[in-house]
Amino acid sequence: MFGANRFPVPPVVEDQLPESDSMTMTELVAGLVEDAEKLLQQQIEMFKAEFQEDLRRTRQATELGGVGIVLMTIGGLTLVAFLVNGLHEQFGYSMTASCLIIGGVLLALGLLFGVLARSLFSTFNPLPSKSLTALWENLTWKTHGGT
Questions:
Q1: Domain locations in the chain?
Q2: What integer pLDDT is reported at residue 1 of this predicted model?
Q3: Structure-model confidence comparison of residues 141 and 97, the more confident one
Q4: CA atoms of 125 and 119, how far apart (whole Å)
Q5: I want to staple 120 with a disulfide (CB 3.0 to 4.6 A). Which of 31, 61, 99, 106 is the partner?
Q6: Dist CA 13 CA 18 (whole Å)
Q7: What's the CA gap between 75 and 11, in Å, rounded?
Q8: Mean pLDDT of all residues in the chain?
Q9: Helix %, strand %, coil % of the chain (to 5)
Q10: Would you say residue 112 has pLDDT above 90?
Q11: Is 84 exposed, middle or buried (0-12, 13-18, 19+ CB in 10 A)?
Q12: How many other C-beta atoms lie within 10 A of the C-beta of residue 103?
């Protein structure tokens, strides 16, 4: 029941063993072609799934960047006039200095959101590289005879 490595060894059933004498070369080639077709179909399905995942992540990153841009624009347009005037009135800064201070703060916030979106985009490749690599390896093996 247990082999030398203490792993269970399944019993050998005669019906499960292929009869090599009864299989013709045509049947062997047909089996290989069927296996190759099945492998190609699995690769295509893996490619589709990976593409859908990367598309979802791309949409997520784009939405984050879009929200950042919209918030930066809305905040900038609605508060610039008020904040510039507030700095001028409350602290005695000139209007030019007030505009530069408020503009710098809004620019920094916009850059922060842009950097966050860029870093999210850099965490993945929008192309399905894993599927393409596996497919390339299989095609290379097939064309070079397994070497």
A1: 51-125
A2: 47
A3: 97
A4: 12
A5: 61
A6: 11
A7: 73
A8: 80
A9: 75, 0, 20
A10: yes
A11: buried
A12: 14
Distance CA 67, CA 113 (A): 9
Question: How far apart are alpha carbons 147 and 145 in whole angstroms?
Answer: 6
Cβ(114)–Cβ(68) under 8 Å? yes
Please give the average per-residue pLDDT across 84-102, as a whole number: 90
pLDDT value at 71 more than 80: yes
Distance, CA of 18 to CA of 121 (rounded, Å): 51
Q: What is the pTM of this model?
A: 0.40
Tell the residue number behind the tokens 């870093």, with chain if given. 119
105: Cα within 13 Å, side-chain hemisphere: 11
Which residue is listed with tokens 């990976």? 50
Residue 73 has pLDDT above 60, yes or no: yes
Largest CA distance in the chain: 100
